[in-house]
Amino acid sequence: MTEKLIYMDYQATTPCDRRVLEAMLPYFCKDFGNPGSTSHILGERAEEAVEKARAQVANLIKATADEIVFTSGATESNNLAIQGVARSRWEKGNRIITSAIEHKCVLESCYALKKEGFDVVILPVLKNGVVDVEMLKKSINDRTILVSLMAVNNEIGVIQPLDEISAVCRERGVLFHSDAAQAVGKINIDASMADLMSVSGHKIYGPKGIGALYVRKSQQVKLSPLFFGGGQERKLRSGTLPTPLCVGLGMACEISGLEMTRESEMLTEYKNYFMGKILNGLEDAYLNGDRELRIPGCLNFSFRGIEGEGIMLGMRNVCLSSGSACTSASLEPSHVLNAISIDDELAHSSLRIGLGRFTTFEEVDYVSSKIIEIVNRLREMSPIWTKGG
Amino acid sequence: MKYSKKVMDLYANPQNVGSLDEEDVDVGTSVVGAPSCGDVIKFQIKVGKDGKIADAKFKTFGCGAAIASSALMTDWVRGKTLDQAKEIKNQEVTEYLSLPPVKAHCSVLAEKAIAKAIENYMSKRKR
């Protein structure tokens, strides 16, 4: 295939921004010191760089630098938050509340704790993909120690009502953790609405292998660590800090903060164009998730009568993803689409389109046309699709 | 999913897509799989006076492997007697297309499709 590659999978990961890479480079070979070795000048330089990065991360989510713990990514942050709270608060209670549309690392962390005897409640979501806050209120009991709900869903891009959830948790005196991997850098986030918040580097044009956990400064917010060792990161995350990665995350946060408004305007235009073209150009095409309460860079469609992987095969030069079972090793369709009551057939036919910083209008125009063309072609060979039916 | 060139070619230029007249006594039709599982194959054969399969058509809802398996099956059964067609095993399809193990079920479905179409044809002849 000689056609130009087009990347539209920005929720899976993002390319590292050149400016981020430039900022990181000096810390590999030149200023390579261990940020913990403050007895010499190379250690001091590394420490300085790491602390600057910590402040950049904090700044983006309106936190203070001493509330930021560097981790290896959002998966570790989520594990540390959930398991960390469970281990430190088990005497106070054993109920943990989360939702059916969380990332697997949140759900699997909770399932692991369930095996140890924790009482895990999985909240349903409404058909538009927004968590049912009324159900949350009803589910909190005296034994509840943690609520973990994401800020923006990674498959359908729906924004969750963090302010409402936060108010409920504060009123009931329950800790609130939010996986904000898909939200930070895309929409304005005030971390102090939560007690714990997970951040990812590679979702915001930073490097892979770095993330952060916001831990609100408060007597109530206490965590047990997952890793033991030299006691780095206020004893919450032992292990030598990867200076270049921390610097990369910091720089990625700073750039996102500066460019978020402009980027969001551009992506909103692209999203509206893409959505209009697909929904007007094809019958039986549906947008999954709320039309308004969503980040502009994520669209998720279902097309009746055909299968998602089949669409993707028709445009191998376009990188995107599907909720179809056929694209995963598990052969199960997306748990998120399932949770928003999309029937299995439509879940198999879903496509997630991720737009981002380096997306161009030409790409948006090309891919939307291509999808229409392929969907029509595949429908002609589908035994279960009839026009107008 | 990494597919072989054969799968990609069959996906891009599938032969024998379409339908035959279901009412025709010489035509056997099958529909196997379920939309909720992500794969449905509609398979049809037309048997000639000489007892050999003269024509075969398919329509498939499914992934690349399902489309390629059913397209290949329509190709392979042409000119074969019903007994010969029944002999085609899903492993041969898997091997020919170099399907990844996770996609083996698509070839199983194609094997089922031909078996059911023959069954349907035979039941029509009895009447």
Brief sketch in words of this structure:
The complex is a heterodimer of chains A (389) and B (127). Chain A is of the alpha/beta class.
Instruction: Indicate the radius of gyration of chain B in whole angstroms.
Output: 14 Å
Kindly give the count of domains of chain B.
Answer: 1
Number of strands of chain A: 12
How much helix is in the residues of chain A? 25-40%
**Poorly predicted segments of chain B:** none
Q: What is the secondary structure topology, with strand pairs?
A:
The complex is a heterodimer of chains A (389) and B (127).
Chain A: E1 6-7, H1 18-24, H2 26-29, H3 41-60, E2 68-71, H4 74-89, E3 95-99, H5 104-115, E4 119-123, H6 133-139, E5 144-148, H7 162-172, E6 175-179, E7 196-200, E8 211-215, H8 243-281, E9 285-287, E10 298-303, H9 308-313, E11 318-319, H10 335-339, H11 344-348, E12 350-354, H12 361-380
Helix pairs in contact in A: 1-8, 3-8, 4-5, 8-12
Chain B: H1 5-12, E1 27-34, E2 39-47, E3 53-61, H2 64-77, H3 82-86, H4 90-97, H5 104-126
Antiparallel strand pairs in B: 1-2, 2-3
Helix pairs in contact in B: 1-2, 2-5, 4-5
Overview of the molecule:
The complex is a heterodimer of chains A (389) and B (127). Chain A is α/β, with parallel strands linked by helices and 389 residues long. Chain A is 39% helix and 13% strand. Chain A is built from twelve helices and twelve strands. In chain A, helix 3 (41-60) packs parallel to helix 8, helix 4 packs parallel to helix 5 (104-115) and helix 8 packs across helix 12 (361-380). Helices cover 46% and strands 20% of the residues of chain B. Chain B starts with a helix and ends with a helix. Chain B has a single domain (5-126), classed as Alpha-Beta Complex (Sufe protein. Chain: A).
